[in-house]
Specification:
Rossmann fold, 2 domains, two-stranded parallel sheet, 12 helices
């Protein structure tokens, strides 16, 4: 099978690349060739081009045809339309990486299935992803463009700290400083290791049954946010000092925080993975976050240069905590 990844060196796509190559897939990456050192994958052929430059990409693709094309970096309908134009005669399956944040927020029913309504009034990112999905469905109806939609939720590797504030929060935790947790910490969340996600994604490649269908691919482990913070603390060898602040209050301090919290992380979100398991029977999420947290901490502690606090963000946390303490 000949497969093209647009991107291919990111947190999720690098694991999928490694697994695809290990399974004998003839894998190409289309990218600008500027991120190869970050997460290198051996055995991949590179087509160097900027996907945002249509003419350059068309020339670089030449007479290549692929069984599957996966776009890891498509975010707007204009970008997806360009892909439709580029690949309608070059592939039998186009996989669009959407987002599980497109589902109804807050959800009226759990667990979420692929039939859950798509609606997120809080986060523009999600609404644009929905528009991309709508365009693909219309393209399938109008011209038979063979798409498959994949919706990752919060997927991580050793380099991604899945806490609001990332490294700054982790270093505050290590120093015994209070760390901000949104809400009361009891909402349920789903974290998926990128190697687990890869089994589902690679299993979909070349499956004709997946055309005109959508799938989320997530872990079946459900954790409260307090538990997630405590697992990170345990990996560090500390008991974290959790400081709870309502999401709506946090959102007033930073609009980017606000969109990500109110549009994604504030509400409990768990997923029914029956659909992907039915089509890809060998898919199962086997890496619990307790193991993932240890991988993250080992990566952070392997290089002091990684252990940097963002002074602006740190000051913002201090102000949130001071202001909310005074209100209390």
């Amino acid at each position: 099978m000949k497969v093209l990844f647009i991107g291919g060196t990111g947190i999720i796509s690098s694991a999928c690349s490694a697994l695809a190559v290990s399974r004998g897939i003839n894998l190409y990456h289309l990218n600008r060739g500027k991120s190869l050192r970050l997460r290198p994958v051996s055995g991949v052929k590179t087509i160097q081009a900027d996907i945002r430059n249509y003419a350059e990409t068309e020339q670089a693709l030449g007479d290549h045809k692929f069984d599957v094309v996966v776009n890891w970096i498509g975010f707007t309908p204009d970008q997806i339309q360009a892909d439709i134009d580029l690949f309608s005669s070059r592939t039998d399956q186009y996989v669009f990486i959407s987002s599980a944040s497109v589902y109804e927020t807050p959800p009226s029913k759990l667990p979420v299935t692929e039939d859950t309504i798509l609606r997120n009034p809080y986060w523009e990112y999600s609404r644009i992803k929905i528009a991309c999905e709508d365009l693909l469905r219309k393209s399938y109806q109008d011209q038979g463009f063979p798409f498959t939609i994949v919706r990752p939720s919060h997927t991580y590797d050793k380099t991604l700290i899945p806490l609001q504030g990332g490294m700054t929060t982790l270093m505050r935790m290590k120093q015994g400083l209070p760390v901000v947790v949104h809400g009361d910490g009891s909402s349920i969340w789903t974290l998926t290791h990128h190697q687990d996600f890869a089994k589902g994604l690679v299993g979909l490649l070349g499956k004709s049954e997946s055309i005109n269908e959508a799938y989320h691919i997530t872990s079946d482990e459900w954790l409260s946010w307090d538990k997630i913070f405590r697992l990170m603390g345990a990996a560090l060898g500390v008991e974290p000092n959790l400081f709870h602040i309502p999401s709506e209050v946090i959102a007033r301090y930073d609009p980017i925080f606000g969109e990500g919290l109110l549009g994604d992380k504030t509400h409990s979100m768990i997923f029914d993975n029956s659909k992907i398991k039915a089509l890809v029977p060998d898919f199962s999420a086997e890496i619990p976050f307790e193991v993932g947290a240890k991988e993250i901490v080992a990566w952070v502690e392997a290089d002091p240069a990684r252990q940097k606090i963002d002074s602006h963000l740190n000051g913002l946390f201090e102000k949130m905590i001071d202001d909310y303490t005074q209100l209390g």
